[in-house]
Design brief:
Number of strands: 12
Largest sheet: 3 strands, antiparallel
Helix content: 10-25%
Structural class: mainly beta
Strand order of the largest sheet: 1-3-9
Number of helices: 2
Strand content: 25-35%
Shape: elongated
């Protein structure tokens, strides 16, 4: 009798450890002659920012042909912007010189500098949250008098591209 009570008590304790799980069914059953709906929604939790995301593309290097006479007007090719932002936000891209707007010679013995100006699309904002692969065109302009006083050689300068979500 003790063995029977021990087995029954063991089984009772075992069944007491089983906890039933109750959950609402995620499926909706349609009844004949009635309409049913299902909700679909986007999940933005994988986005890098609460504002959305954007991409700005620009070249790492642009070559300006040496000008013997006259002004030069060189396009910085390959500049594009792409944005997918929340409603009310826009992407603004600006291009500006890093420091003074002058190119310095890579040869330290050359003290001549080439002053330049940036023209064209130096500030771009399409005033919409979604922009799909839109090109913009900044230019580097060097005046004829700068070329006429420059020692022949390689000159460099750096530009800063700034993207801001407004």
């Amino acid at each position: 009798m003790k063995k029977l009570c021990a087995v029954l008590l063991s089984l009772t304790m075992l069944f007491a450890l089983c906890v039933p799980a109750f959950a609402e069914s995620p499926l909706t059953e349609a009844k004949p002659g009635s309409d049913s709906t299902s909700v679909i929604k986007t999940d933005t939790s994988s986005l890098p920012s609460a504002d959305g995301y954007f991409t700005v593309t620009f070249p790492a290097e642009t070559a300006i042909k040496w000008q013997m006479t006259g002004d030069s007007h060189t396009l910085i090719e390959g500049c594009t912007m792409d944005s997918h932002l929340i409603q009310g936000k826009t992407l603004e891209v600006t291009v500006a010189p890093s420091g003074a707007a002058e190119m310095t010679a890579t040869d330290p013995s050359v003290t001549t500098k080439l002053a330049y100006t940036l023209t064209g699309d130096t500030t771009v904002n399409h005033n919409t949250p979604v922009v799909n692969n839109q090109a913009f065109a900044p230019y580097v302009d060097i005046a004829a008098d700068q070329w006429s006083h420059a020692v022949v050689g390689e000159y460099t300068a750096h530009l800063t591209f700034t993207a801001t979500v407004l």
